[in-house]
Design goal:
The protein is mostly helical. Helices cover 69% and strands 9% of the residues. It has one domain. It has helices spanning 3-10, 18-41, 52-71, 76-79, 102-111, 114-131, 133-161; strands at 83-90, 93-98. The protein has a two-stranded antiparallel ribbon with strand order 1-2.
């Protein structure tokens, strides 16, 4: 069965870029495999476990970097080839919708969804943690500081509005 037939039967009312999704999954898995092979060649040992503090640090950093990639006004130039601006979303963020067809649409959908891009960010931070824990902790700490500052800014604004 041709890819077009599968896609048409899967979603007859709306284009779903299944081949584009498959391409992104292939790239994602190739990066993981390539990274693990590279780490093994460098004789980098995978950690037995990740400390709870590092998990929390990397988790908050993943959240913040995912939102920066998917929603931040300043990073809109990265998404622009794959998205269309819709409106400001407040607090330095924008709403965009994916555009195009096939792979372009699939990449657009990935880039506007902080939950979707989060898997890629978490994987990159995890691989960075194995390859260079100190540098990854520094980068993750910076992102975590920004996320904490964002939360304080929002709390401050809410407190001002309630007085």
């Amino acid at each position: 069965m041709a890819t077009h037939d599968v896609t048409a039967k899967y979603s007859p009312r709306e284009e779903r870029p299944l081949a584009g999704y498959a391409g992104l999954v292939a790239v994602f898995n190739a990066v993981i495999v390539g990274s693990l092979v590279g780490l093994r060649a460098k004789r980098e040992a995978l950690p037995e476990r990740v400390a709870a503090g590092d998990l929390a640090l990397l988790g908050v950093a993943t959240f913040k970097l995912s939102r920066l990639i998917a929603k931040d006004k300043v990073t809109s130039f990265l998404r622009a080839p794959f998205t269309e601006y819709e409106e400001s979303a407040g607090h330095g963020e924008v709403e965009e919708k994916p555009r195009g067809h096939g792979l372009q649409l699939a990449i657009g959908e990935l880039l506007v969804c902080p939950y979707c891009i989060g898997q890629w960010v978490a994987t990159a931070l995890g691989l960075g943690y194995v390859a260079n824990p100190r540098a990854t902790r520094l980068a993750a700490s910076t992102l975590t500081l920004v996320a904490i500052a964002d939360a304080i800014q929002l709390a401050w604004k809410a407190a001002e509005e309630n007085t």
